[in-house]
Amino acid sequence: MSLVRFDSPGHLAGTDEAGRGCLAGPVTAAAIILAPDFENEVLTDSKKLSESKRKELKPILEEKALTYSVQHVFQEEIDVINILNASFLAMHKSLDKLSMLPSLILVDGNRFKPYQSIQHHCIIKGDGKYLSIAAASVLAKTYRDAYMEKIHLEFPMYNWKKNKGYPTKEHREAIRKYGICKYHRKSFRQLPEQLMLDI
Question: How confident is the model at residue 199 (pLDDT cuts 50, 70, 90)?
Answer without folding.
Answer: very low
